[in-house]
UniProtKB/TrEMBL annotation:
The keyword Transport does not apply. Belongs to the Nudix hydrolase family. TIRR subfamily. GO terms for cellular component: nucleus. GO terms for molecular function: snoRNA binding. Pfam families: Nudt16-like (PF22327). This is Tudor-interacting repair regulator protein. The keyword Repeat does not apply. Keywords: Nucleus, RNA-binding. It is found in: Nucleus. InterPro entries: NUDIX_hydrolase-like_dom_sf, NudT16.
């Protein structure tokens, strides 16, 4: 079910409000419809990225549900991001441009307009609108993409490897998603991850808020280091 359909029936002629993230500690990005994004002038750049995911019935240590396998990638600059990149709207549609970039980094997946999830205006000096796509696959299909990515043209160059996002939180309240969110992300990738997890009902909103809040707490020093602090 899409994000708009999940919002329920609306009065005739009314437009549904665009969904927001609403997680404390994460600055909101301005949402806009695909139609609005396509009407932006030539001074705007368009980036397209995709989240590939699959339901995962596995259990970590036999007791922690994995829920979903979600793919991200380690980039050449040491930042985490989603597969994709900038699309030159003079020559490509959003999906054609996205698939061209995905072919370089993954090699065996094509997305369509049906996989479109959202668009947001980015912060900063550059006029960029970030388009985000999400495609649910089977766990076997996702694993095939992971294998294919190792043999793609960009592997070891612009892409250093694929990673799966841990969607659980361990008893220490840091292991899993909170520690993962403490990494460095490129551009809008962290916002897009949290947004998709919420909108697609993959992680409850309160669990997302708890994971984000955990990353903002001062980290405790190991006992041997704490003893050395005067």
């Amino acid at each position: 079910m899409g994000a708009m359909a999940a919002m329920g029936a609306l009065p005739a002629g009314a437009l549904p409000p665009l969904p927001t993230l609403g997680v404390p500690g994460v600055p909101e990005l301005k949402p806009l419809t695909r139609y609005e994004a396509m009407r932006l002038g030539p001074g705007w750049s368009h980036s397209c990225h995709a989240m590939l995911y699959a339901p995962n019935p596995g259990m970590l240590f036999g007791r922690i549900p994995l829920r979903y396998a979600v793919l991200m990638q380690m980039r050449f600059d040491g930042l985490l991001g989603f597969p994709g990149g900038f699309v030159d709207r003079r020559y490509w549609s959003l999906e054609d441009g996205l698939n061209r970039v995905l072919g370089l980094g993954l090699g065996c997946v094509r997305l369509t307009e049906a996989d479109y999830l959202c668009s947001h205006l980015t912060e900063g000096p550059h006029r960029v609108v970030a388009h985000f796509y999400a495609r649910q696959l089977t766990l076997e299909e996702l694993h095939t993409i992971e294998i294919s990515a190792v043999h793609s043209r960009d592997h070891g160059l612009e892409v250093m490897g694929m990673v799966r996002v841990p969607l659980y939180t361990q008893k220490d309240r840091m292991g899993g998603l909170p520690n993962f969110l403490g990494n460095s992300f490129v551009g809008t990738a962290k916002f897009q991850l949290l947004f998709a997890l919420k909108i697609l009902n993959m992680v409850p909103e309160e669990k997302l808020a708890e994971a984000v809040a955990a990353t903002q707490k001062p980290k405790k020093l190991p006992l041997d280091q704490a003893a050395a602090v005067p």
